[in-house]
Amino acid sequence: MSLVPHAAQRNRAELVVHAHSRRVVSVTAIRLDRLGKRYGRLPALRDVSLDVPVGDVFGFLGLNGAGKTTTIRILLDLVRPTTGRATVFDRDCQTQGLAVRAQLGYLPGEPGFYGDMAGEATLDLLGRLSAHRIDPAWRRTLLDRLEFAASDLRRPVREYSTGMKRKLGIVQAFQADAPLLVLDEPTEGLDPLMQEAFYELLGEVRRRGRTVFMSSHVVPEVERVCDRLALLREGRLALISTIEELRSLAGRRVRASFAADVDPPAAWPPDCEVISVAPRLWDMRVRGSIASFVSLVAARPLADLDVQTPRLEDVLRKYYAAQS
Description:
Elements: E1 15-17, E2 24-26, E3 28-39, E4 42-53, E5 57-61, H1 68-75, E6 83-88, E7 91-92, H2 97-101, E8 104-107, H3 119-129, H4 136-145, H5 150-154, H6 162-174, E9 180-184, H7 192-207, E10 211-216, H8 219-225, E11 228-233, E12 236-242, H9 243-250, E13 252-258, E14 272-278, E15 281-286, H10 291-298, E16 302-308, H11 312-323
Parallel strand pairs: 5-10, 5-11, 8-9, 9-10
Antiparallel strand pairs: 1-2, 3-4, 3-6, 6-7, 11-12, 13-15, 13-16, 14-15
């Protein structure tokens, strides 16, 4: 298990051959190296280092004001870092900003569009500005999944609700099918049905091999769609982990009930923490694999085995409490 405070793991291979162009490219989509940003005397980011592997859906988690949006603006060269460096596919975000932006689709936290322009015209304009060819069939898929009617697309954007503007923002970010999607609080303002549609679209772009860097303060959302996450707290990187590693850290609650009285073992497996033991019920917390515990109970007259996986929200709440 690897919880990495203040630095990302560097043990991945650095280069792969691109399947289409045969160019040598980095397997790291985003790299932040000791990134810092101050606004006057106010530190917004402090020594943030992380790697986002190509093909990952990466959750950038933190409370409002933690520094998530500042980090994204640095990636887009909308804000310059005070210290450190940010790269996208090995290109420096500040010295090669145009090349970086050509590789990504971006959904801002508060999308802004020309109010007098119709939705379809907005998508056409932004598509022409993109470095990538827009596939009409893919755009149609996006519009259908997000339930955009043709009549909605003909209306001026100023008539759109907050949720419709968010959906338009998602379509414009996804339509170019860029190698990297940078999404700032993507489900803010969406109703539950459209949130589900968005999650399905994330699954589709994952299958296409795209990388997603998604900021959020909604823990269940990150738990559902992300491969790994970074937790930002008051501008500092608190941890980097896969979702499964975090769950393993907290441990699964395992209750084994037996059809007859049983004796406990002389020694419990090393990953087992005893909560309570009775002749017909063992209540344990198991960190890591439960295979050794399952082998232990399988040799006895087992009646039922209940395994409860901890919610990521509970794990992070305990982590916050321990760090306070």
